[in-house]
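ok so i was messing around last nite and threw this chain in just to see what happens. nothing serious, just curious
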Amino acid sequence: MGERWPRSAPDVLADPIAVVVDLVAGYESTLDRQAIQAVVTSVAGGRAKRRRLAQALLDKPTLLTDGRSPAPRAVGELLLALRTAGAGGISAPWCAGCGREITSMQRRDEDWHCSPCFARPQACAACGQQRHVTFRDRHGRPRCSQCPDHDERDPHRVLVEVITSLDPGLSTDVIATSITATVTKPAHEQKLAWAIEETPSCSPEQARRPLSLWCCG
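result:
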């Protein structure tokens, strides 16, 4: 079994694959490090996704052994891939609704579900009717197709204002460039703005994290 040892945020930025392999090897004895690295590399995707995966497991390594969300989608994908590869010490992901083992990734926000629970109608947070969930509002509550969560503000401006308040030393140009380089879809920018706006009292370490680690996967 691999040796477990502490990692830090600089490791996540410099070599996120190594961070994940070390964490998995600390619990997994069936697969060797070469096999683990092959699985991690196959599911980790690009740089931003790799960092999100590494940071999530660094923050909560027990995800590897209990399989319980909330967690980024990349963590669930890694658990499924490791199990398929024959990992014996790694948990399968478990449905946040009914608690059963799942074999494919159906996700709402930070929770993963089995197909029946994912498709089950829920009470819309706006109208109260039992309907299929089409949207999630800024608080993560379900919304039906008739009740989207409108926010007329420019999410880019919200992000700049909130991040500037967290770290006045950052220039607006640097923040704007980071946002543009990290978030490619307007919907993701809106979700990121809501997420950061909801946590203005985050720790200095969180405030200094690259935007690629804040963005939902």
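not much to say yet. The CA atoms of residues 164 and 170 lie 6 Å apart.
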